[in-house]
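Same chain as my last thread, 500 residues:
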Amino acid sequence: MTAQPSSRLIVVSNRLPYVRHLKKGEKWALEPGSGGLVTALLPVLRDRGGTWIGWSGVTENVSRIDDIFRNASRGAGYELRPVSLSQEEVDKYYHGYSNETLWPLFHDLQSRATFDSEYWHTYVKVNRKFAETLAGECTDGDFVWIHDYQMADVAHHLREMGCQANLGYFLHIPFPSPDIFMKLPERHALLTSLLAYDLVGFQTVRDRRNFLQCVRMLMKNARVRPDGHLHVVHVDDRDMRVGNFPIGIDAAGFAGRAGQPEVEERVRSIKERFAGRQIVLGIDRLDYTKGIPERLRAFSSLLERFPEVHERIHYFQVVIPSRTGIPEYDELKMRIERLVAEINGRFSKLGWVPIHYFFRSLPPDELLAFYRASDIALITPLKDGMNLVAKEYCACSLEETSVLILSQFAGAAAQLGSSALVVNPYDVEQTADALYHAFRMPAGERRYRIRRLRRNVHGQDVFWWVDSFMQAAIHKELKDFPLLEDYIPEHHENIVPSER
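reply #2:
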């Protein structure tokens, strides 16, 4: 292996991009993880000799954990630096403040938010632990990119430690409007933490506007001014910048893998089995923000109001298990399954079951085949930072005969809305009407719409996203962090996550 380049990419996130599991013989092994951040960053970090800092994924003491991740680093082309967390820290920082407080609040579902001061104190403690690990890794010339709502407080601690590195932060989920953000007891502390970064990036103009409105309302000594496509916030005798950078995918990579022979065979099998019928596809992690029950009711409305679609349409709903054992998510799962059973019980006929329900993760080839074989994608979250499933679906629609139905509350609607059928997911009849419109849409209109969507997804892909963020942060592009020329990885995984 050659020496590492002088400029490195350093990524900090809640989890490392590998999941540890116990194999037969009581030996630990690593598997590539899934999720939007992994999907987005692996193509740009791989083989560049950078570093990824994150939680290892377990709380118990496991011997030789550093060796396990060091071995994985040799096959990944970048270093993996695990951060150890106790079970109490995971419970209060991750399950608690991150996912019971920030997650629902930032998705405009404040009635689901739990406010507990112990959660906040543990969140601060864990963010400091990440900052300490980062401080030992960071050198001049590195680009430090910290990600998502679990890590909002890292820069604050780094500044207290005297770190002067250029720190970028990207929030993958929405940022709430001031009237909702004001409900957060720690609103001033969290906003102060975010202002300690040099650049804070959001998915959409709406999120950036919400953040700046909160700054103007809560930070009386802050001054905000536009600067090109960015905004500059002057606070505490320093300037930081704010912008919106809609995240992309490795569109060419998805399209290439979707055309592989093994995927082609699966697509052919699905189309032969459902010949003469259209397939509607929904793929979501089990989460109350995804609007799955509302979507099922919309499909039921379609069947009730437009009987001519009977025996001519199938709805594949894939739900990826998430946060199992938490009562709220277990109840959501039962609610979804009850709706599926009720709709199938009401409308099924001999030889035709309207809804095919999957509660599991999908292997990469099966996921890609579903993307390609389906005629309509129904992606209707109640609120989403971006929703990369919509972009993956477009990239994999090689036949260019597909229709995308997209929630107006998904961040992706800002980019894809002009060519998708955009709906309010709370409006069941409107969503049903969009399904009927998509079902009857002529081939020429389908082709026109999906080609525009595919051009957008390919033009603003993950590499464009990284370049736009780094240009704003440090006036560099991805090519300024060169590949290790003589590096030959031991193993490459084509990671196609089930949901992000």
